[in-house]
Amino acid sequence: MTAADQSGAAEPSYDRLPEWLRPLAHAALHVRPEELSRFLPPDEGGRESAVLMLFGESRPGWDGADVLLIERAHDMRSHAGQVAFPGGADSVSCPTATVCKAVGSGTKIYTKN
Question: Are strands 55-56 and 66-67 parallel, antiparallel or unpaired?
Fold first, then answer.
């Protein structure tokens, strides 16, 4: 079952998502880039990148959800020591491979290639 949004596009069903994730999934379909950052990609050029936003069910006795974040190395040229989603520049023209590489190298989560 889908519902149409203001543009007339069909919106996916959220029935299989946990209740806490439904507002985020809905918002992700409607958010504009300028609502997330004042640093927008250039109209031409730039580089492709990808990040993983991994959410998990909350633990017993915990009110909310878990999210995977990493701390960037403190000796990096830019954004040293900042908290971030795993990912980065896409050097292989495959966002999935980019994220899997970042997750495998920066966490104890292992991905199947």
Answer: antiparallel
Flag whether 1 is in a domain. no
- Domain of 88, in residue numbers: 11-106
Assigned domain for 2 exists: no
CB environment 55-83: b (16+ within 10 A), e (fewer):
eeeeeeeeeeeeeeebebeeeeeeeeeee
Distance CA 26, CA 10 (A): 12
Q: Is 40 part of any domain?
A: yes
Q: What is the pLDDT of residues 41-73, one digit of tens each?
A: 888 887 888 888 888 876 777 777 788 888 888
Which DSSP letter does residue 96 get?
H
Closest CA to 52 of 96, 18, 93: 96
pLDDT digits (tens, 9 = 90+) for 94-108: 888 888 777 776 666
Report residue 75's pLDDT band, with 50, 70 and 90 as the boundaries: very high
Domain count within the chain: 1
Any domain includes 83? yes
